[in-house]
Amino acid sequence: MMATPVRRRTRARELALQFLYSYEMRGEESMADLDSFVEHHTKTGEAATNEPPTKDRIEIADYARDLVRGVHDHLDEVNRWIEHIARNWRLDRMAYLDRNILRIALYELLHQSEIPFKVVINEAIDIAKRFSTAQSGSFVNGILDRARILIEQAREESGEQIPKAPAAGSAGLGAAPPDAEAASSTGLPPGAPVSRPSARKPEAAGAEAGSDEEAMPSSGEFPAQGETEFPAAATPAEADEDLADPAALPRPRRRRRRRPGSQEGPRRPDSDQD
Question: Residues 6, 9, 15, 17: what is their CA dihedral angle, to the nearest 10 degrees?
Fold first, then answer.
């Protein structure tokens, strides 16, 4: 009995995603076509057939309109939530479908409190898998799961059903636990993706941060057998030694090429001469 309403909401979310995609392509003028778009795809209103539209079609049309208008009216709010959570991923770097799936889901998480969080997130993941890339499902899952935690915390702390969106410019701070480092020393502009750090071996049990132990050398710098200390760094070149002077480098030998058509082969010093 519960499967039918879920299918209706799923169809409404798919229609909302299609329209929001066209909204990004065409701009504000596309909002004037919302009613005709929904009526055409649900066979309701003026696009209805000879038979009156069923209750299911009317519910699909109504919820699709609610989602599109809700995302449109709260676009700045949902965008700030996404940018706050999606560390190192600006909205303009996300795929069109992915960011609109996130917008629809975040609008539902914030403003449709009667729908369980789990249903909204699972629906968004399924839609991302069907319509976007192979990695979109896990990407959407990670963003929305973190959004669920932050929204629940904000509701408990403020007592408001619809918590305020994060301040503008706080991109990336919500993607990690509060005690994790949020600042990056890469020097890249805010929101630019950075490469995943390579895995490092855990420190020895006896070594502690700030100890006087020597740091582990990089590859090629390990001491030879019997040495107790790591070798010192190589001494710099003498000031009067110009390593970039071409005259100081040995000149390569030029190999003599055999002329085409020449029948004479190389002469051996020990060969017999007539």
Answer: -90
